[in-house]
Specification:
With about 200 residues, this protein is α+β, with helices and mostly antiparallel strands. The chain has 2 domains: about 1-45; about 50-185, Rieske [2Fe-2S] iron-sulphur domain (Rieske Iron-sulfur Protein, 3-layer Sandwich), CATH 2.102.10.10. It has helices spanning about 5-30, 35-45, 110-115, and strands at about 55-60, 80-85, 90, 100-105, 120-125, 140, 145, 155, 160-165, 175, 175-180, 185. The strands form 3 sheets. Strands 1, 2, 3, 4, 5 and 10 form a 6-stranded antiparallel sheet that branches. α1 (about 5-30) packs across α2. It starts with a helix and ends in a 13-residue tail after the last strand. The structure holds FE2/S2 (inorganic) cluster (FES). The site of FE2/S2 (inorganic) cluster has 11 residues, from loops.
């Protein structure tokens, strides 16, 4: 018998497929030629995006999705997570581009811009390297930099996700957070399109 988590994910995958089918029918009905319709779908990036009010769940957690709380994110240890629409019981993991890396800092070390989009000192960025799309999950405590294990790009999370050293040239998109009680909640979408140059 399917586990609750699998049922929820199967449900949301089916919803996404149905939504895409409806869009194809609408585009076809509008008289657009097939190639143009496919281009429109591709440009639309059809997977469900993170939204204001989403919770976050650990990407490696099993069983029923459990929203992350402030105490679930330790200092100096990145946590990879996916947005979670609690009202639909839907983890937004249809695309790895929705994956975020959470890092917790003492609020005193955050500048005003970072503090404004943090939740109790937790900052969220895209977890996808902007070079070639590897997951970002290595934190250098000594240098205070997030490091890509593929080709060693280093990102300054305390300076807006800017690149400290390449080969990546583009900053990491960030995602604003807020706290509801002690639950970490998404306060808006990514600041820019997440993903690597070839992802
Ligand atoms: S994929 Fe991250 S540095 Fe190349």
């Amino acid at each position: 018998m399917p586990q609750p988590e699998n049922r929820a994910r199967a449900c949301c995958t089916a919803q996404a497929v149905n939504a895409q089918r409806r869009r194809i029918i609408q585009i076809a009905a509008s008289g657009l030629a097939a190639p143009l319709a496919l281009m429109a779908l591709k440009a639309d990036d059809a997977w469900p995006k993170p939204a204001d009010g989403d919770r976050l769940v650990d990407e490696s957690a099993e069983g029923v999705p459990t929203p992350l709380r402030l105490s679930d994110v330790p200092v100096d240890k990145p946590v990879l997570a996916y947005p979670f629409d609690e009202s639909q019981n839907m983890v937004r993991d249809d695309s790895h581009l929705n994956k975020v890396v959470l890092m917790r800092f003492a609020e005193g070390v955050l500048d005003a811009e970072s503090r404004a989009r943090s939740a109790g000192g937790v900052l969220a960025f895209s977890a996808i390297c902007t070079h070639q799309g590897c997951d970002l999950k290595t934190w250098s405590t000594k240098d205070q930099l997030l490091v890509c294990f593929c080709h060693s790009t280093k990102y300054r999370l305390l300076e807006g996700g800017t690149v400290a050293s390449g080969p990546a040239s583009r900053s990491l998109p960030n995602m604003p957070l807020k706290l509801v009680g002690d639950v970490i909640v998404v306060a808006g979408g990514f600041s820019a399109q997440p993903g690597g140059q070839v992802s």
